[in-house]
Design brief:
- The protein is built from eleven helices and twelve strands.
- By secondary structure, the chain is α/β, with parallel strands linked by helices.
- Helix 6 (178-199) packs across helix 9 and helix 6 (178-199) crosses helix 11 (287-302).
- The longest helix is centred in the middle third of the chain and has 22 residues, at 178-199.
Length: 306
Amino acid sequence: MEIAIIGAGSLGAVYGARLVHAGQTVTLVDIWPEHVARIRAAGLEMDGWDGPATTRVDAVMDPAAAPQADVALILVNAYATPDAAASAQALLKPDGYAVTLQNGLGNVEALQAVLGPQRVAGGLSFISGELRGPGQVRQTNTGPTHLGEMDGTHSARLHALAEALQAAGLEPVIDDDIMAVIWGKWVHNCAVNAVCAITGLRPGQIHEVPALHEFQACVIEEAAALARANDIRLPDADPVATIQAWCKTRFHRPSMMQHLERGLPTEIDALNGYAVREAVRLGLSAPCNDALTRLMKGRERAGGEG
């Protein structure tokens, strides 16, 4: 299987390295010149779950320079999804398809608008990584990789991808209702990413501040209410309890915190900002998500100086 990974940041690099070690042919596509140059010259250095290793993997900036791919894993930040869709269109084989493993809502629709509904599958990842510098990544958390066709079928193409992910230790799960799973991860990310990025706290420290712990519960409840209003049945019946229990055991630096430190835009508009827009559309209220969105806009302006 010829696999392209569009977006070789912290998560894309982890997936690329692990898939190559499992014997897959992988091309990384990214817009950071120093990162691509370092990978091409010296390989991709990865540390974390399986110890340090250097992986030789093809990396390009121009999608037209990539081999034609059977599948493109989309791992760019949500605001770059339209550009990723154009890249996928340039490098996919005629019968190739794209799978979004991104955070946030709206990515499936943005890919479908360019590639067509039949060439897009949904997904998400509970793995996390930290990009330590050009060509250097650390896997900071392990977990499942969810996949799903938008019509709920268990297709041959997803089973083939799942086999590759399984061999790479990426714990694939094929879901009947991938949008419910994506919404569930969206609620999770709304609860964690901006809270950590704004405060500087790790997930496991949130509960140590009672006022912040209560605020996080409000963020979750607002997001879950929006899911219910859209007839989305979340995978978890009690997302507040589940997410807050998960937080207590995790001390990684969420991606939004890493983006701020590198002076990059965040995915706030696809997370808490999406909740605000959806609440307005539905005539509901989401004051906690609105507060996080406004504060994050200020933190983005300050960049890594906060």
